[in-house]
Description:
Blueprint: H1 13-28, H2 39-46, H3 50-62, E1 66-69, E2 73-76, H4 86-117, H5 120-138, H6 144-158, H7 161-169, H8 171-182, H9 187-204, H10 207-221, H11 225-228
Helix pairs in contact: 1-3, 2-3, 4-6, 4-8, 4-9, 4-10, 5-6, 5-9, 9-10
Amino acid sequence: xxxxxxxxxxxxxxxxxxxxxxxxxxxxxxxxxxxxxxxxxxxxxxxxxxxxxxxxxxxxxxxxxxxxxxxxxxxxxxxxxxxxxxxxxxxxxxxxxxxxxxxxxxxxxxxxxxxxxxxxxxxxxxxxxxxxxxxxxxxxxxxxxxxxxxxxxxxxxxxxxxxxxxxxxxxxxxxxxxxxxxxxxxxxxxxxxxxxxxxxxxxxxxxxxxxxxxxxxxxxxxxxxxxxxxxxxxxxxxxx
Length: 240
């Protein structure tokens, strides 16, 4: 049977709720930091269960678009709710663990080699990348370009053409994992601090410390809301 004739699927109810919330934020002119209406009120106005509202908010939280403060409501973290389709989130959730495994295997080695082989020019590029990330974060951004430049500088400092080739083959997937990590609450500043520790170890020529610092950093990168999200699970019952 042609793939084009695969069975049609109906959108999940909570996906429709997500779309309505997106429209509400735009129509109401809500801004970053504003609070969404309480779940109970949303459920009443939309004519759905609170469980469906809860699952919709989880989808928004997974994408870093809202912050859920336990007992304090749900607040916007972006000017608009530009939501990815749930199927795309599911696909990324499936491939992310493999990407993170590959990053740990390759990037701990690049950190080790960089500590052993770095030149003054390499250290200057690492410092420039850190400065970029600091500026981005100070401007209220995620620091993703500085983050990319930092890891690229370490790969270059390892002076291993074959490892560099491997890194290029998964550059798109690495960028995806970077964005996923940096949009976690408070993650950009934590990532910057961890980068600084990696850089210190490389500058000191301490290969073991560089490996340890990089591994700790990548373990932090792996702690993202997406990986604990189950798109088909019933959300926990709402608090009364």
